[in-house]
Design a protein that fits this description.
Blueprint (H helix, E strand, L loop, with lengths): L3 H7 L1 E5 L6 E5 L2 H7 L7 H37 L3 H30 L3 H18 L1
Helix pairs in contact: 3-4, 3-5, 4-5
Bound molecules: zinc ion.
């Protein structure tokens, strides 16, 4: 009976990840195939990181849309506000929401640029904080 496990092992080779430079196992031939189509050779960890980044970025974008909607609502309320005092209160709310929006844009940029798992956790916490501020 052929030993399928050792067979699998001999079909693997150790190479360095294009992003984190950590060594990992890849099917023999896979590296050549990827190089031919000029594809990045990325380890499992980096793929997972990429997925987490995408997930987090899409929640940030979702929140940004909510903030934009609420700014629009405040603008409508200003138009129909009866006193200057009420108007000012809505202006203040718009100001706060805009500041949060700016922060979230910066956060989005950081998420896209990072290649480090530990920052994703940090950005996630920052985002939770922002969400609390905006509600
Ligand atoms: Zn990697």
């Amino acid at each position: 009976m052929p030993d399928s496990n050792s067979n699998k092992l001999t079909n693997l080779e150790l190479i360095a990840c294009d992003r984190c430079k950590n060594p990992f196992m890849i099917q023999k031939g896979e590296k050549l195939r990827k190089q031919e189509i000029d594809e990045e050779i990325v380890c499992e960890n980096c793929i997972k990181l990429e997925e987490r980044k995408k997930l987090l970025a899409s929640s940030v974008i979702e929140s940004q849309n909510e903030i934009k909607t609420s700014i629009k609502n405040y603008e409508d309320k200003i138009e129909s506000a009866e006193t200057q005092e009420i108007k000012n209160a809505f202006y203040e709310k718009i100001k706060t929401q805009s500041e949060i929006l700016t922060k979230s844009v910066e956060l989005l940029k950081k998420i896209e640029e990072t290649n480090d798992e530990k920052y994703i956790e940090e950005y996630k916490n920052l985002f939770e904080k922002l969400k609390k501020e905006s509600s």
